[in-house]
Amino acid sequence: MTFSLTDPKRGRVLVTGASGFVGQAVMARLAALGNDFVGLSRSPPKADAGQCHSVDLLSDSVADVLAGLQP
């Protein structure tokens, strides 16, 4: 199976570590390609982070977070 970031029919992409260097670059590329994505980060998201949510995966219920975001 091949995954293509240019195919928006692939569904919503979940980006963990969204406030980090790589996470921000990945989300910027996804946005430029018109993909639907959601970011998760332990630290609060930046004002221009788009659809990024502050979540501590060690203390928050991962199942609840994923059910609400539906990546």
Any overview of this molecule?
The protein is α/β, with parallel strands linked by helices and 71 residues long. It has two helices and three strands. It has a three-stranded parallel sheet, covered by helices on one side.
Task: Walk me through the topology.
Blueprint: E1 13-16, H1 21-32, E2 37-41, E3 52-54, H2 62-69
Helix content: 25-40%
How far apart are the first and last residues' alpha carbons, in Å? 19 Å
Biggest sheet: strands, sense, closure? 3 strands, parallel
Overall geometric form: globular
What is the residue-mean pLDDT, rounded to a whole number? Answer: 76
Main sheet: strand order: 1-2-3
Instruction: Name the poorly predicted regions.
Output: none
Summarize the structure.
With 71 residues, the chain is an alpha/beta fold. The protein has 2 helices and 3 strands, in the order E-H-E-E-H.
